[in-house]
Structures are given as C-alpha cells and as structure tokens.
Amino acid sequence: MEQTVAPQALSHAVDLEEAATLIRRANRILVMGCSGGGKSTLSQKIATRFGLAYVSIDRDVLWLPGWVQRDKEEQRAIIVARVQEERWILDGTNPSTFDVRLPRTDFVIWVRMPRLLCVWGAISRWIKWMGRTRPEMAPGCIEKVDWEFLHFIWTFEEKFSPKVIAGLAQHGPNVPVLQLKSRGEMRQLLDLLGRPA
Fold first, then answer.
1. Per-residue pLDDT tens listing for the chain (197 residues)
2. b/e string for 116-131 if b means 16 or more Cβ within 10 A?
3. Which residues on adjacent β-strands are paired with residue 89?
4. Cβ(114)–Cβ(154) under 8 Å?
5. For residue 182, how many other CB atoms are within 10 A of its CB?
6. Which of 139, 168, 174, 191 has the fewest CB atoms inside 10 Å of its own CB, making it the most exposed?
7. Which residues form a coiled coil (predicted)?
8. Which residues, listed in sequence order, are joined to residue 178 by a DSSP beta bridge?
C-alpha cells in the first residue's frame, strides 16, 4: 500500500490551473521527486517552453564521470553559484541544499508518482539508454539499474517526503508547490502550459 503525506501538510499547495499561471510568471522553478518519476523530462519541456536554463543536479552538480560523486563542498558551491542566476529550472530533490535553493525559488513542482511507476520508469529508461549516457546525466555515467537503486526508489516516499515537507516549511514557507501524482496530471499541466496565455 502506498504511503503518502496529506497535501494539506504543505502550506502553499496549488492546483493545476493556478500552477500553470504561476509557472508562466516564474523565473526560477525547482522540480523534485523520486528517480523514474519523470521530473527530468518535465523539467526539460518546461525549460524549452519558457526559455529557462535547465540545471540537472545529477549532471551538473552531483556526479563526475564513472559514477564518482563530487565533493560535498564543491557540490554546494556549484548550487550556490547556479541559483544566483536569474532564470532557471533546477531538476533535483536533495533536501540538504534547500536552504540555498528554496529562498531563490519562485515555484516548486513535486513529481510524486506511485513507487511502482517510478520503478518502471527507471527500468524502461535503463533499457532505452543501455550502454549509453542519457543527456541529463554527467558524461561517462553509463545508465545503470541495480538493487540498491531500486531499493532507493521503493523507500523514497517514506524516507524523503518528511524531509521534503520539513525543508519546504523551514526554507520556503511561502513558495507555492504543485504535487503531480499521476502521468495524467503531468499531461494536463503540459497541456495547460502549451496554451496561449
């Protein structure tokens, strides 16, 4: 059975219509959620639609070639520099840098898909990119799926959602948040954003 936290736990939760209006006006958007949920694809579509710089935490901050993690201090320095830019969409969840990212964020999209869908998303992505590096990953990080990664996805909601909610309350209490809980909602949002303002 899926464990979720009630939407009212977020102080500034918005619906799809309101979200579309706010995204059109936003200069800086944070997209977060579990691996395999579709946040990178969504981020890139919104970046293209509104001319925002696309920043991938995985590609631009976290990983060096060969799945080597960048030093934590260097990661933080990169994020500090990137969030000072005027227009961006940042794809990545890590709550440990919410203190830097959320005060600069105009809008948050929380891609909160069911875990089975995220597992399927990760596996199908691995099949599609097998033996290659996908564009939103650091060079030399060949697409992979292992039990550790699948366990991370399976337990993401229970482990990370409380941290996300606490981080939003502490560092972005006035930042509006849209939760997307199905592919249908994601398609609806993109449809709304594709219409003339």
1. 444 444 445 667 889 999 999 999 999 999 999 999 999 999 999 999 999 999 999 999 999 999 999 999 999 999 999 999 999 999 999 898 999 999 999 999 999 999 999 999 999 999 999 999 998 888 888 999 999 999 999 999 999 999 999 999 999 999 999 999 999 999 999 999 998 76
2. ebbbebbeebbeeeee
3. 29, 54
4. no
5. 12
6. 174
7. none
8. 109
Alpha-carbon span 74 to 82, nearest angstrom: 12
CA–CA distance, 30 with 36 (Å, rounded to integer): 17
Edge-first strand listing for the sheet containing 88-91: 53-56, 88-91, 28-33, 107-111, 177-180
Burial group, residue 139, by CB count within 10 angstroms (0-12, 13-18, 19+): exposed
Query: What is the model's pTM?
Result: 0.91
Cα 33 from chain centroid (whole Å): 5
- Structural domains in the chain plus CATH codes: 10-191 (3.40.50.300)
Write out the two tokens for 118: 């995220």
CB atoms within 10 A of CB 195: 7
